């Protein structure tokens, strides 16, 4: 099992460009999450999907959109990238409620917006 | 306003000794607490959790203590091993309306010296 995979691993964008971060899990988990981690800060939730077909905003959703393509895949889109979105992005999944149970994280995508 | 605080950015401990990582919180509505470990260039991995109805939970070398009156939890690692060198995040969960949310601390870098 690969667990949670994310592509790309690294990306550099110019201000105003768009891109989609891809995430897939092979553990048949219902719930999936997108976080960002900035230096000196903890992980902050951008969006989550409690089950296929549903998505909800997290703590910092502005500037992002998500798609739960199927049970396996959950993508994060930046429509018009800004330097403030320079960060490391983590995707995670969980069987049940990831708020009280284990979440499995991908290796992250390091995004730089110039 | 950080609701979950890890006031020590770093901690160094000799191999074989005890490591104690601390976490303070301000929101009395937090009712589950989790610890995650993160190695460089990898996603966080779940370590241990505790419900607010307990004051202690053990899993092998890892023990989490919860002091609700002080709004403080700690992670004890005994004995510490060089492979434990990583960033440790505490996270706290509370209800947000009909849903839940998870708030992470900023992390503590643990270095176990051989």
Helix content of chain A: under 10%
What structural class results from the helix and strand content of chain B? mainly beta
How far the N terminus sits from the C terminus of chain A, by CA atoms, comes to 36 Å
- Largest β-sheet summary of chain A: 7 strands, mixed
* Strand-pairing-aware structural class of chain A: mainly beta
Largest sheet: number of strands, sense, barrel closure of chain B: 6 strands, mixed
CA(first)-CA(last) distance of chain B: 38 Å
Number of strands of chain B: 11
Write up what this structure looks like.
The complex is a heterodimer of chains A (114) and B (114). With 114 residues, chain A is an all-beta fold. Chain A contains no helices and 11 strands. Chain A has strands at residues 4-7, 10-13, 19-25, 31-37, 43-49, 56-57, 64-68, 74-78, 87-94, 104-105, 109-113. In chain A, the strands form 2 sheets. In chain A, strands 2, 4, 5, 6, 9, 10 and 11 form a 7-stranded mixed sheet that branches. In chain A, a hairpin with a 6-residue loop joins β5 (43-49) and β6. Chain B has 114 residues and is an all-beta fold. In chain B, the strands form 2 sheets. In chain B, strands 2, 4, 5, 9, 10 and 11 form a 6-stranded mixed sheet that branches. In chain B, a hairpin with a 2-residue loop joins β6 and β7. Chain B is globular.
Write the layout of secondary structure elements.
The complex is a heterodimer of chains A (114) and B (114).
Chain A: E1 4-7, E2 10-13, E3 19-25, E4 31-37, E5 43-49, E6 56-57, E7 64-68, E8 74-78, E9 87-94, E10 104-105, E11 109-113
Parallel strand pairs in A: 2-11
Antiparallel strand pairs in A: 1-3, 3-8, 4-5, 4-9, 5-6, 7-8, 9-10, 9-11
Chain B: E1 4-5, E2 10-14, E3 19-25, E4 32-38, E5 45-51, E6 56-59, E7 62-67, E8 72-77, E9 86-96, E10 99-104, E11 108-113
Parallel strand pairs in B: 2-11
Antiparallel strand pairs in B: 1-3, 3-8, 4-5, 4-9, 6-7, 7-8, 9-10, 9-11
């Amino acid at each position: 099992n690969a667990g949670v995979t994310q592509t790309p691993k690294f990306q550099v964008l110019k201000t105003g460009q768009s891109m989609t971060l891809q995430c897939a899990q092979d553990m048949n988990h219902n719930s999936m999450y997108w976080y960002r981690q900035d230096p000196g800060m903890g992980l902050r939730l951008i969006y989550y999907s409690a089950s296929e077909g549903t998505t909800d905003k997290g703590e910092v959703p502005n500037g992002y959109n998500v798609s739960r393509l199927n049970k396996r895949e959950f993508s994060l889109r930046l429509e018009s990238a800004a330097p403030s979105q320079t960060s490391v992005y983590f995707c995670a999944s969980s069987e049940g409620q990831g708020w009280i149970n284990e979440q499995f994280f991908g290796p992250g995508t390091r995004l730089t917006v110039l | 306003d950080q609701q979950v605080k890890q006031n020590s950015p770093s901690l160094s401990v000799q191999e074989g000794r005890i490591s104690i990582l601390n976490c303070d919180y301000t929101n009395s509505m937090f009712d589950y607490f989790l610890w995650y470990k993160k190695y460089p260039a990898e996603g966080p991995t779940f370590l241990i959790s505790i419900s607010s109805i307990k004051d202690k939970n053990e899993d092998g070398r890892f023990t989490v203590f919860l002091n609700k009156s002080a709004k403080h939890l700690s992670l004890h690692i005994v004995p510490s091993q060089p492979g434990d060198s990583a960033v440790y995040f505490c996270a706290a969960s509370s209800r947000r309306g009909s849903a839940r949310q998870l708030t992470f601390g900023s992390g503590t870098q643990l270095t176990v010296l051989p």
